[in-house]
Amino acid sequence: xxxxxxxxxxxxxxxxxxxxxxxxxxxxxxxxxxxxxxxxxxxxxxxxxxxxxxxxxxxxxxxxxxxxxxxxxxxxxxxxxxxxxxxxxxxxxxxxxxxxxxxxxxxxxxxxxxxxxxxxxxxxxxxxxxxxxxxxxxxxxxxxxxxxxxxxxxxxxxxxxxxxxxxxxxxxxxxxxxxxxxxxxxxxxxxxxxxxxxxxxxxxxxxxxxxxxxxxxxxxxxxxxxxxxxxxxxxxxxxxxxxxxxxxxxxxxxxxxx
Length: 258
Fold this sequence. Notes:
With 258 residues, this protein is an alpha/beta fold. The chain is built from 10 helices and 7 strands. 37% of the residues lie in helices and 17% in strands.
């Protein structure tokens, strides 16, 4: 992965961290790719922008890369009650150990921000690993059980080539609202482009309503939000950056980049 350390950290100072997770077939370099490159269209260089704001940023390599190479791993894992995320959770747990040992990192202020398959990671990994202090799911939050199983809508994974997507017993255990309840009471945000073709807005809105109701009933509704923006399957980096500034403030905040 890539570790981005901002300039200007004083001796003894500990900064919050944002773990920035790439999507399907991506690499950490995609999260820092500049304007004019293909990766910019999806990632908007969000990892580099957050580092310029003053955050320590870690962009790890997740294993969903290589076509059937990683899908074969999923198929081998399912019959023994595991999934691809069984390995990803362990990888991130170790990554948190390493980050927490760095002298310039505030170990209790590490956030997770992922797009697409990185958004899938955002829903699953922090639900299991409580050391993630805040979570942003971009371009993935969904009525997940319907998204995986329905034959009545063209966005369903039934009609697409990602045959690894059905996870062991997932439909019987949790939809995305339930995963967000496991993240609570930590701050949780959804970033959603209204032209994102991964699902209809109505599916996303209905599932997020269940998330918000849970936070409301626990008296912590101020810790969750959804940002709808006029865009496709991409990082927006507007409301999400404000969300991070709010819940993981930096004592000496650098100028927010345009």
